[in-house]
Design brief:
This protein is of the alpha/beta class and about 450 residues long. The protein has 15 helices and ten strands. The strands form three sheets. A four-stranded mixed β-sheet has the order 3-7-4-5. Helix 14 (about 415-430) links the parallel strand 9 and strand 10. Helix 2 (about 30-40) packs across helix 3 (about 45-55), helix 3 packs across helix 10 (about 220-275) and helix 6 (about 105-130) packs antiparallel against helix 8 (about 155-165).
Length: about 450
């Protein structure tokens, strides 16, 4: 079974490496504040939300698919939280059953306990789907509920219970084997138990002829009992592996469902936090890369909102058809805050999330890269300009067509003319390669040069 809540045709790759620039991106945009609000103290939700944010979608249709799932989650938050808590409990049940890997029977015993616990949780999941599934409207949630109904129906659950009951072997183990040329036993196979139980008269040898030859090992015959245990181990080994794989299969479904639902639970926590502050939230409109689209009303830096715990002043922007936006002005005028709001909103939109604005529409970006001002190198190995140019070289290695690059006071470590010329050449090269640029600068010559061009 597949969850498919984040992608229409695949699961979240929880083992994928984060992009090479994730450290700079998190530092420059203060993503940790956003993730902290989403996690609400839950490290798992923090990690999975971080992975989703760094795995930006580049297809507007895929973004809309996820936005619709999020809309369902926001409309049925109690149901989603209940489902998530059930899955966490199911995975906790599995961790409680530990088996000795050196013993096939102990592996079988631990796997049976896990499957029994999973079967109960699957039944509870089916109940949630039966009670609330009709209220979902998104393709992702309806696919999940349909899968649960079809794959975990009453017949399936009863079959699982019947098999698990047999696997306890309360009437002993029935197995077959054949003799090899040296009279050693080979091809041990575990068989289904006999169709009818032997009555007490038969077990005592009273009231009829025996239907088979048999013998019993005396309780004190340690060697004989050890040999019998070895025979049973060989017989149940393949069954133990099959049952363990079944438990692992269901566990992988719960694990993936926890990861994908965990992201949406993080979105619910963030939504409730922002609603308590009173900031507007909107579902953004993702657009194609050409022509360039970018417009918003009341766009806020979500990290600043979360840090201050109060309303902040948003910004309105109309930049459709403009691959370059330069922001200049006085110190402490909100330029860097605006730049962070652009980067965070783009990341949130391309993760399928809402953004903190009254409206937001933007072209998708293949990558989001940052080049922010840094403190001077305290080791005195190089000056600030050298450090900026080294980082610019690293950013250039990551650039692809239709990237979004955010510059914050870049190339400010030299004089006006030299810094403006470096900035002009860098920006011009990016624009020629269909890269979108938002540049915050004090350099009047740089800003005015592009204004007049």
């Amino acid at each position: 079974m597949k969850a498919h809540l984040l992608y229409r045709d695949r699961d979240l790759d929880v083992d994928a490496e984060l992009p090479s620039n994730h450290g700079d991106l998190e530092q420059d945009l203060e993503i940790g504040t956003l993730l902290g609000a989403m996690a609400a103290g839950d490290r798992f939700i923090y990690d999975v939300s971080r992975r989703v944010l760094h795995s930006s979608l580049v297809d507007p249709e895929e973004i809309r698919y996820r936005q619709e799932v999020l809309a369902d989650c926001l409309a049925h938050s109690d149901v989603i939280r209940g489902m998530y808590e059930l899955i966490v409990a199911a995975l906790g049940d599995r961790k409680g059953f530990w088996s000795y890997r050196s013993s096939a029977r102990m592996i079988l015993h631990g796997s049976i306990e896990s499957l029994e616990a999973f079967a109960r949780r699957l039944g509870e999941l089916r109940k949630i789907v039966d009670e609330h599934g009709e209220g979902f409207r998104s393709e992702g949630m309806r696919t999940l509920t349909t899968t649960v109904r079809e794959e975990i129906d009453d017949s399936y659950l009863q079959t699982v219970r019947d098999h698990l009951k047999q696997l306890h072997f309360r009437d002993g183990h029935l197995l077959s084997a054949r003799l090899d040329r040296d009279n050693s036993g080979v091809d041990y196979v575990l068989r289904y138990p006999l169709g009818t139980k032997t009555g007490w008269r038969g077990r005592l040898g009273i009231g009829g002829k025996a239907t088979s030859c048999s013998f019993s090992i005396p309780p004190r015959d340690e060697a004989g009992n050890q040999q019998l245990d070895e025979l049973v181990e060989r017989a149940v080994n393949s069954v133990a592996n099959a049952v363990a794989q079944s438990a692992d299969h269901i566990e992988s479904f719960f694990t993936m469902l926890r990861s994908e639902l965990g992201f949406y639970v993080g979105c619910l926590d963030l939504s409730e936090r922002l609603a308590s502050i009173g900031e507007p939230m909107t579902c953004p409109e993702p657009c194609g890369t050409e022509p360039v689209s970018y417009s918003c009303e009341g766009l806020c830096d979500v990290s600043l909102v979360l840090q201050t715990g109060g309303r902040v002043v948003g910004n309105d922007v109309t930049a459709d058809g403009r691959p370059l936006v330069i922001v200049t002005g006085a110190n402490s005028g909100g330029k860097s805050t605006f730049l962070r709001s652009v980067g965070l909103a783009q990341l949130m939109m391309q993760s399928g999330m809402f953004v903190v604005a009254e409206s937001y529409r933007a072209s998708v970006s293949s990558r989001i890269l940052t080049h922010f001002i840094r403190e001077e190198d305290r080791t005195m190995r190089s000056g600030r300009l050298d450090e900026e140019l080294r980082r610019m070289d690293a950013v250039a290695d990551e650039i692809t067509r239709h990237c979004l690059v955010l510059f914050n006071e870049s190339f400010a470590a030299t004089n006006e003319r030299e810094g403006s010329e470096i900035g002009r050449q860098v920006v011009q090269a990016l624009l020629e390669r269909d890269v979108r640029v938002v540049f915050v600068t004090h350099r009047f010559e740089l800003a005015d040069g592009f204004r007049r061009s």
